[in-house]
Amino acid sequence: MQRRKNQNFDRQLVDLGQDGIEGDLPLVHVTPSWTAKEIIRTKKFVTTKCDVFGAPLLYFFVMRPAYQTKIGREESHQLSRFPVAFLVKSSSVSEPRHIYPFDTGGAANGAFDRQADPYIPLEDYALSPDFGSMRKFLGWAFGSARNYFEGRLKADAMENLKPFQSVAVSYRDIARMGFEGSNDHDMRASSLEVASSHNVDIAGNVQLIIAPKQLIEDNDSLNILMTPYLEGGAELKLYDWQANRAPNEYQDDLFRLAKEWYVEAEIL
Fold first, then answer.
1. Do 65 and 255 form a contact (C-beta atoms < 8 A)?
2. pLDDT tens, 187-223?
3. Is-above-0.85 flag for pTM?
4. Closest among 202, 1, 197 to 99, alpha carbons compared
5. Beta bridge partners of 28
6. Residue 183, C-beta contacts closer than 8 angstroms, at least 6 positions apart
7. Is 144 helix (H, G, I), strand (E, B) or coil?
């Protein structure tokens, strides 16, 4: 996806929708197990230099534990490569640096190029960087938190787009890559991205941790570090890791366990 070389943005996705999705929609940070241990040790999520925007940023998806890495399709016996998901309160990022309707790293690296309009630069897809506008966009594009989580676009909104609404039409085409059964299936294509320009503490913000069972069992040092968060109200759900599978294969487990928690919390 090309980049805009000037400031003449054509952000057609801003302010779409009237009726927004209500309630707090948690944010999700997914990372390899090794990095997750570092996060737990340092007691916070820390910004790092972003290659796409050239600034120190920390990334989350809204609600969805979408997960892809450069080595995510490679089978491995190394547990450190496999995903851990942290669900955090949206209030932990009070002023987002930006909100996009898909994964900007994937977009910049060409993950959505087969469906994206080649003339539209990445920056023109940006939403307003506030959660109120984001909820309105979700209401317009998906209609409900459940539809968004499951990747079901709102049919009438998509069908009523005018041909000259090029950014919105291209977004629709990209987002359809998030459908199960898509030839270019990639859940990042319809997962809203929130970037923070500040660190986020684990304590008081993390609501759920999803991790490989084999990372936690009998790992006394890690369990000692996690105990304060679990006693403080965070929950833990585990999936059964197996050696010589690929990290990306566990995305379904992340979604299944996150969905269970959302249903229990009456968010879905």
1. yes
2. 999 999 999 999 999 999 999 999 999 999 999 999 9
3. yes
4. 197
5. 61, 87
6. none
7. coil
